[in-house]
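Structure ticket #2291
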Amino acid sequence: MTALAQLPFEQPSLLQAAPQLRALAARGTIHQIRTATGDPAWLVTGYEEVRRLLADPRLGRSHPGGLTRLPVTW
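Resolution: structure written out below.
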């Protein structure tokens, strides 16, 4: 099993996206990651996917018990 990416990503240049973020985005638009405190989280890099998430009332910033899967409609 591949280890989850860990935030924060190293960002050598403030004017460019972090190399690890670019690498994840190249592999797909939705990724499980770990926050800076080690909590599991989702990172969504695709524009359309982010728009859909922001418009979806079922999803929020945090959820009791954690969100282990994206909704079936994804």
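Closing remark: Residues 41 and 62 are 9 Å apart (CA to CA).
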